[in-house]
Amino acid sequence: METFQKLSAIAAPLLRINIDTDAIIPSREMKRVSKTGLSEGLFAGWRYLEPGSRKPNPEFILNQNPYQDAKILLSGANFGCGSSREHAVWALEEWGIRCIIAPSFGAIFFSNCVRNGILPVVLDHSIVESLASQVTSNPEKNLITVDLSQCSVTTPDGTAHSFSIRPADREMLLQGLDSIAITLKRDADILAFQTQDHHSRPWLYL
Amino acid sequence: MKRTIVEKIWDLHCVADLGDATHLLYIDRIFLHERTGSIALKGLENEQRRVRNPEHVFCTMDHIVDTFPGRTDATTMPGGSEFITTTRAASLAAGINLFDLGDDRQGIVHVVSPEQGIALPGITLVCPDSHTCTLGGLGALAWGIGSTDGEHALATKTLVVKKPALMRVSFDGSLAFGVTAKDMILHLIGQYTAAGGVGFAVEFCGEAIRELSIEARMTLCNMAVEFGAWTGIVAPDEKTFEYVRGRPYAPRTDLWDQAILHWQSLCSDPDAHFDKEIQIDCSDIVPQITWGTSPQHEVGIDGIVPDPKNEPDAHIRQSIERALDYMALEPGTPLEGIPIDAAFIGSCTNSRLSDLRTAAEILKDHRIAPGVKAICVPGSSQVKKAAEAEGLDKIFTAAGFEWRESGCSMCFFAGGESFGNQERVVTSTNRNFENRQGPRTRSHLASPATVAASAIHGCLTDVRKLGNQ
Ligand code: SF4
Predict the structure, then answer these.
(1) B56 to chain A nearest CA, in Å?
(2) Which of B52, B283, B380, B457 is buried deepest, with most CB atoms within 10 A?
(3) Is residue B37 part of a domain?
């Protein structure tokens, strides 16, 4: 997993609310048992003119210059709600998105981001809007800077907004840790728990 | 200390406190399906990691498989067979329990797990599928996860989870004729939005909840995730215990009393603290129908399509405009009477035996309207068998419905079968997102009763009026 420390990048505003994971990657674009090869299907329903076609829709923000190079996505509330498909995160990551800033996120999507090196930042609706308006006046120059060690988002005019993220998620992103390896270090605890639990809830042990 | 049911289950499963309200939680059961489970199993294989307790892991084929009679590994979804064969091979290699095609335990994951007694009161159960919250209906703490967390649960029998905030939603009073659990949850989402439950575990309680059957409680909890909640739960009671008794993986007879004793302790203490409380008067709930592309876009069947002009918030206004454009609806149009092209009864929300009975009761001695494509997909092979034993299949087919093999079917569009471009569907499923049931397909979520009544009339129909005829 790629680590996340600090990023200054073009930010693309896609300020719709309730953007669901079906919209981020439609089921029909999850063609194989694989975590890769998904970026082509990212936002397929909006990004291409006809369902199933590959003709870019010029109206869609990620098809426009210079947003094709965006690494940050600004969005409306409840981003990533709906289906648990981790493909949504894999597709965003493969396309090049490293950070998403929104007023709130779907819970499963949020965890999936952290597990895959994408930083989800929760900021107030009004702040996300002001970021969006600063960016759009000159997206190439008006980069947004996200610093995870400082937990801050800095706008082109130098204003810094701090955000909070739980320490475990922050560590995982900063260090690109493998969560299974970390948990397996507690193998003895798990075994002890299981032994005691087997005794108190025997009906669950098949 | 006074504790809620969620806290009681949580505490009992805590392996280690990781600080900052985050715990390493023991996971009792893991369920997989061929769409996301295949990736989790393959991911483990690639890392050369073992499934820690394969006897506690179950897998079914539901998402990608066809639901046509006589189906095989071949799928209408291009490339779908790979999901099936990969899952089969990986399940065998890992030594987990597989309910394969042709196995009479096969079906939609959240229908199968309670049916087989795999989901039980007081357990933790996870699945790489967002509607795992369905099992809250039995009093299980069950939630959807991603594939990476799926690998974590498989390899370690635990998950790292942050304690959610706690919400209690009380449904007071009783439901009127024609109003079901589906209408209760749609009403809640309509009132408090699709993000109303973000960050919360929601306990449903109140008179109306106690009255609900276990299957109806599962319908209610199924859509907790559509409310944005981490999960939903209903405290188990005598009805729950009766439901569980005798199921294949339920506690053995010699351990039954011990299990019951534990289950009886699973309720929120009086005066336990909730971070948020919502009260709903059931007499306010009428049969619900969605008009847009989010479950929060809903009204009573006697309502009208809203006018975005009346919405002060610009973002919400735009989302309404987009939805109306997608759904091809004009503000002010009464929902009742909007012509439909198709009707669908199925999905983990509403495809259990009681749902099929409700629909069949309405369809009996009726024909669906000419030109309407209507499909019924039982939630599991067991449900199908039980329904056929009662002759429900005959009622559905006589009315003009297709009667299918169990699976997710057209609850979602996987690239194969779909309802078609701009077709308008009334559906007992849980998501009316853009393109969910097919490219440009327009979905209206409703209860099975409303779907059946609408299929007969060829338009969105108030099921209560049928009762008065
Ligand atoms: S029936 Fe629909 S919502 Fe339920 S698990 Fe299958 S695809 Fe998901």
Answers:
(1) 7
(2) B380
(3) yes
Indicate whether A24 belongs to any domain: yes
Residue B415's region, left for phi above 0, alpha for psi from -120 to 50, else beta, is left
Residue A67's domain spans which residues? 6-175
Number of domains in chain B: 2
Q: Is the pLDDT of residue B108 over 70?
A: yes
DSSP one-letter code for B433: -
Q: Which of B106, B127, B162 delimits the end of a domain?
A: B162
Query: How far is it, in rounded angstroms, from Cα B190 to Cα A19?
Result: 17
What are the pLDDT tens digits along chain A (206 aa)?
889 999 999 999 999 999 999 999 999 999 889 999 999 999 999 999 987 789 999 999 999 999 999 999 999 999 999 999 999 999 999 999 999 999 999 999 999 999 999 999 999 999 999 999 999 999 999 999 999 999 999 998 899 999 999 988 999 999 998 899 999 999 999 999 999 999 999 999 98
Is residue A150 one of the residues assigned to a domain? yes
pLDDT at B1: 85
Residue type, B360: A
Atom of ligand 1 minimally distant from the CA of B110: 5
H helices present in B328-442, as ranges: 353-363, 381-389, 392-399
Strand partners, B298: B290
Tell which A residues from 7 to 66 touch B, by Cβ distance under 8 Å: 15-18, 20, 22-23, 26-35, 45, 51-52
Q: Tell me the pLDDT tens digit for each residue of B294-322.
A: 999 999 999 999 999 999 998 899 999 99
Residue with tokens 């997102």: B433
Q: At what angle do helices B448-457 and B353-363 cross, to 10 degrees?
A: 30
Is residue A185 less than 8 Å (CB to CB) from chain B?
A: no
**Could you give the CA distance from residue B348 to residue B367 in angstroms, rounded to a whole number?**
26
Is B467 a residue whose pLDDT tops 80? Answer: no
Q: What is the DSSP string of A25-93?
A: S-GGG--SS-SSS-GGGTTHHHHBSSTT---B-TTSGGGSTTGGG--EEEE-SSBTBS---THHHHHHH
Q: Say if A185 falls within a structural domain.
A: no
Q: What is the CATH number of the domain that holds B39?
A: 3.30.499.10
Alpha carbon distance, N-terminus to C-terminus of chain B: 55
**Domain closes at, from B109, B140, B162:** B162
For residue A66, is the peptide bond before it cis, meaning its omega torsion is within 30 degrees of 0?
yes
Residue B141: which residues within 8 A CB-CB, separation 6 or more? B6, B9, B10, B13, B122, B123, B124, B125, B201, B231, B233
**Tokens 């369809």 sit at which residue?**
B363
Q: Which of B64, B67, B131 to mutate to test the pocket of ligand 1 (most atoms within 8 A of CB)?
A: B131
Ligand 1 center from residue A145 Cα (angstroms):
39
pLDDT, residue A157, reads: 87
Mean pLDDT of B120-134: 98
pLDDT of residue A53: 85
- Residues facing B374 on adjacent strands: B343, B401
CB–CB of A17 and B56 under 8 A? Answer: no
Q: pLDDT digits over B48-94, tens only?
A: 999 999 999 999 999 999 999 999 999 999 999 999 999 999 999 99
Q: Is residue B384 part of a domain?
A: yes
How many structural domains are present in chain A? 1
Residue B469: per-residue pLDDT:
45
Tell me the CATH number at A59.
Answer: 3.20.19.10
Structural domain range at position B363: 290-467
B382 Cα to the center of ligand 1, angstroms: 17
